[in-house]
Task: inverse folding
């Protein structure tokens, strides 16, 4: 990351900054620059509050465009990744539209795959069940059969965890909106009433770009953050 941004700075380009919901490297850099560490830093998945969004299977979805911008991913490869994810999203819609009725013939067909059908359901509904094997079910489902093997497995995982993933995305978007308020880059925190010496020292050392990054500084209390927001608003109005 340091090398990428050094090259971008030399070329006069904006830096590459990965968010905490985009990659573990984004979590690592954010932790080290805002929270600091008093011992050797180890990148545990538990450090990422949005780790369900950071699966290896979806890495190209999150990072291919970043790679294209900084010149680390060929345009053809980035285009292929974009097409793959468009096709994947279309396939998920097809799975939701493909319906199964609980008639005798359908129930018999699905029972061969270990699936009991008592009420109308879509293929997406069936894949949400832990007993549904996407590879076996593809023999009876045209929508699944049209997908590549790796995408069938990913589709099943995506559908089973979609509620948790959607919640993480909502939380990440809410935090981004709340913390997007920019802090003036040359703002001095020294001498501002209401801050402890520790908070002032950390703000001066970290120099957070936004309130969101300031909130993640170790020792930043809600009261100190609210006070900082008030000072930022005053500084912007001047």
Result:
């Amino acid at each position: 990351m340091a090398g990428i941004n050094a090259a971008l700075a030399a070329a006069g380009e904006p830096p590459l900054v990965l968010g905490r919901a985009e990659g573990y490297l984004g979590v690592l850099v954010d932790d080290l620059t805002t929270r600091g560490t008093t011992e050797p830093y180890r990148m545990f998945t538990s450090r990422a509050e949005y780790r369900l969004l950071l699966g290896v299977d979806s890495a190209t979805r999150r990072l291919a465009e970043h790679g294209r911008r900084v010149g680390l991913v060929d345009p053809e490869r980035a285009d292929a990744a974009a097409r793959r994810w468009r096709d994947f999203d279309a396939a998920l819609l097809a799975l939701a539209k493909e319906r199964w009725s609980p008639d005798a013939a359908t129930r018999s067909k699905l029972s061969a795959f270990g699936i009991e059908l008592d009420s109308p359901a879509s293929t997406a509904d069936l894949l949400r069940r832990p007993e549904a094997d996407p590879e076996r079910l593809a023999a009876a489902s045209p929508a699944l059969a049209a997908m590549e093997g790796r995408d069938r497995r990913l589709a099943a995982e995506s559908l089973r965890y979609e509620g948790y993933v959607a919640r993480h995305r909502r939380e990440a978007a809410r935090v981004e909106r709340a913390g997007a308020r920019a802090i003036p880059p040359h703002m001095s925190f020294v001498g501002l009433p209401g801050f402890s010496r520790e908070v002032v020292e950390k703000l001066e050392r970290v120099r957070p770009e936004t309130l969101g990054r300031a909130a993640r500084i170790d020792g930043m209390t809600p009261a100190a953050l609210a006070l900082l927001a008030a000072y930022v608003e005053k500084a912007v109005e001047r």
Notes: The domain at 182-237 is CATH 1.10.150.570 (DNA polymerase; domain 1). The chain has a mean pLDDT of 91. The chain is about 60% helix and 0% strand.
